[in-house]
């Protein structure tokens, strides 16, 4: 399952990065994601809403993604974290097929 995690670095994390500007945060992310059985797909620095990060990763267990997200927050690295499940086009095709099968079972409000 693919996930996108975004967040802003905390002041504490930014100070640590400034003290060691060559620190490899991508390697730290890769290590954590791989420990959860996943794979880091891409990682970008972002400037929106303050210095932050956007990480796209794949994990086989859906419970691993919120664990990864939670660890970054409790470690004091990131704040304002958002975790979004991403769907491949094949997965969306399956979702649409399931929705089409279920459509007749749902009664919308006012019907």
Distance between the termini: 36 Å
**What do the pLDDT scores average to?**
95
**Largest sheet: spatial strand order:** 2-3-1-4
Q: What is the count of DSSP helices, taking H or I runs of 4+ residues?
A: 4
Q: Strand-residue fraction?
A: 25-35%
The percent range for helix content is 40-55%
Summarize the structure.
It is built from four helices and four strands, in the order βααββαβα. It is α+β, with helices and mostly antiparallel strands and 111 residues long.
Give an overview of the whole structure.
- The protein is an alpha+beta fold.
- It is built from 4 helices and 4 strands, in the order βααββαβα.
- A hairpin with a 5-residue loop joins strand 2 and strand 3.
- The chain is elongated.
- The relative contact order is 0.22.
- InterPro entries: GYD/TTHA1554.
- It holds the Pfam family GYD.
What attributes characterize this protein structure?
single chain, 111 residues, alpha+beta, 41% helix, GYD/TTHA1554
Fold blueprint:
Elements: E1 2-9, H1 11-19, H2 25-35, E2 39-46, E3 52-58, H3 64-74, E4 78-86, H4 89-102
Antiparallel strand pairs: 1-3, 1-4, 2-3
